[in-house]
Amino acid sequence: MAGPADAITDARVPAGELGLPAARLLDVLATLPDRAARVRHLASVLTQHRRHPLDPLVQRAARALAQARPPSVAELADSLGVARQSLARRVRQAVGVGPKELARALRLQRAVQALRAAPRDHAALACELGYHDQAHFIHEMQALGGLTPGAYARALATGQDV
């Protein structure tokens, strides 16, 4: 895809329009054992097919936002030496969402990784991940991932492809 990522945020775009070898990609995805493997492979393919290198400022921002206790958008912009609006625009163009949404997604990713690694107390995990409380953690995981932490853990325990 030649344009900014935010041009296709929340849109259904045929793989062929992204410049990917769509038929081959679908064949490979069909052979992978589970959803996690398919997501990893798809992420790898999308990364390899970027038409432009990722903005170094966005890379630094993503690393900061992936921390256990990420800075606020204002603090991040200040530490990177750019205006908040400029940071938001550059992140949105590169990844399709703004810095706050990216931080939410990265925190959810850490939660999923922790739940996949071993059964965890959800209140302790919520605290570890920087959620205000367990209710906030449950709400965020349901909103972004479609399952509560308990439902996700039960699905993992029963071998469901989540």
Task: Please give the structural blueprint.
Layout: H1 22-31, H2 35-48, H3 56-65, H4 73-80, H5 84-95, H6 99-117, H7 122-128, H8 134-145, H9 149-157
Count of DSSP H/I helices: 9
What is the approximate shape? flat
Report the CATH architecture of the largest domain.
Answer: Orthogonal Bundle
In CATH terms, what is the fold-level topology of the largest domain? Arc Repressor Mutant, subunit A
Q: What's the alpha carbon Rg, rounded to whole Å?
A: 17 Å
- Alpha-beta content class: mainly alpha
Q: Distance between termini?
A: 28 Å
How much of the sequence lies in strands comes to under 5%
- Describe the sheet with the most strands: none
Q: How many strand units?
A: 0
Number of domains: 3
CATH class of the largest domain: Mainly Alpha
Order of helices and strands: HHHHHHHHH
- Low-confidence segments, given as residue ranges, are none
Q: How helical, in percent, are the residues?
A: 55-70%
Q: Would you tell me the overall average pLDDT?
A: 88
